[in-house]
Design brief:
This is KTSC domain-containing protein. The protein has 67 residues and is an alpha+beta fold. It has two helices and four strands, in the order βββααβ. It has one domain. The chain has a four-stranded antiparallel β-sheet with strand order 1-2-3-4.
Amino acid sequence: MSRISRRRTARNDNGTLTLEYRDGSPQQHYQVQGVDLGDVVEALSQWAENRRHFIAKHTCERLTLWD
């Protein structure tokens, strides 16, 4: 089975962004809140190069909608 990897962003009312990413199954769906555009650019650039330093640098909350 191939690995599914997705990213999504949304702007919050206070101007910050929420970045979501899924790294495999639905049970591996995470969210980082309160980041800025520079953080999102950094994360997407790293993921494009198969690096994950952004994840270690931020608090990532696992979404449990699919549990």
